[in-house]
Amino acid sequence: MRIAIWHNLPSGGGKRALYDQVRGLLARGHEIEAWCPDTADATFLPLEGLIPEHRLPLERPGRTDWDKRLHIPAAVEGLLEGMDRHCRGCAEQMAGRGFDFLLAHPCAFLRSPPIGQYVDLPKAMYLQEPYRWLYEPMPRLPWLAPEPSGTPQLSLAGLRERALDWRTLHNARVQGRAELRSASAFGRILVNSLFSRESVLRAYGLDAEVCYLGVDLTKFEDRGLARENFVLGLGAFTREKNIRFAIEALALLPAPRPGLH
């Protein structure tokens, strides 16, 4: 098969999954080309050494002067419009090149990318997770009203508070709508676990199929070494990883407690 791939991945586990999928597909005789925006990480496990990778620009309008004065985030519509233009450009390049299938991986900004809406091929998305900030308390759900601050509403500070609340809620609703539309455009959504399948169902109301990531036995082998008493965590130190929870949980164990690495 000739397979087109799209992604906008940073360094990390998602990029490693894509890299190993590409290696496995190449080993089985498939022909592959990849497309991504210039925001994707090109240094961590680069695909360029394995397959042709086409990097197209992604325009992301910044905040307006009004946004800066009120200290509020940029409107998400600018990012969505830029991503749509980028994906349309990728789809135009993919067309007429004899591809049999599109395999999309997540977008670092939107999770579910709009590329599926513009490619007329059988297509699947390997989705690590929905955009969790929209669907999980981290630490609060975005649609919860802020606590009253007591600031006079007609003051400049009160205006800023209302503008921030409106923009935050507006961005969440618009991005959620776009993410659902993008996810619905794929004929099949693949996930790496039953937990992720449940997350997709809660967020989108769409079913997904579990496609477990494999283990490269040429790199990972049991060498029969002595076990050591520690807890090992792998992942970025970001709020959604909840490193604090691991620290507090281990602190409840009686001494001698295992170390945390």
Can you walk me through this structure?
By secondary structure, this protein is α/β, with parallel strands linked by helices. It has six helices and nine strands, in the order βαββααββαβαββαβ. The chain has a seven-stranded parallel beta sheet with strand order 3-2-1-4-5-6-7. A two-stranded parallel ribbon has the order 8-9. The longest helix is centred in the middle third of the chain and has 29 residues. The mean pLDDT is 93.
CATH architecture label name of the largest domain: 3-Layer(aba) Sandwich
Order of helices and strands: EHEEHHEEHEHEEHE
Choose one word for the global shape. globular
Report strand order across the widest sheet.
3-2-1-4-5-6-7
> Largest sheet, if any?
7 strands, parallel
Task: Summarize model confidence as the mean pLDDT.
Answer: 93
Name the structural class: alpha/beta
Please name the CATH topology of the largest domain.
Rossmann fold
Low-confidence stretches: none
Number of separate strands: 9
Indicate the percent of residues in helices: 25-40%
The figure for the number of domains is 2
What is this structure's SSE topology?
Layout: E1 2-8, H1 13-27, E2 31-37, E3 53-56, H2 65-70, H3 76-94, E4 101-107, E5 123-126, H4 156-184, E6 188-191, H5 194-204, E7 209-210, E8 230-231, H6 243-251, E9 259-260
Task: Pick out its properties.
261 residues; alpha/beta; Rossmann fold; seven-stranded parallel β-sheet; two-stranded parallel ribbon; 6 helices; 34% helix; globular
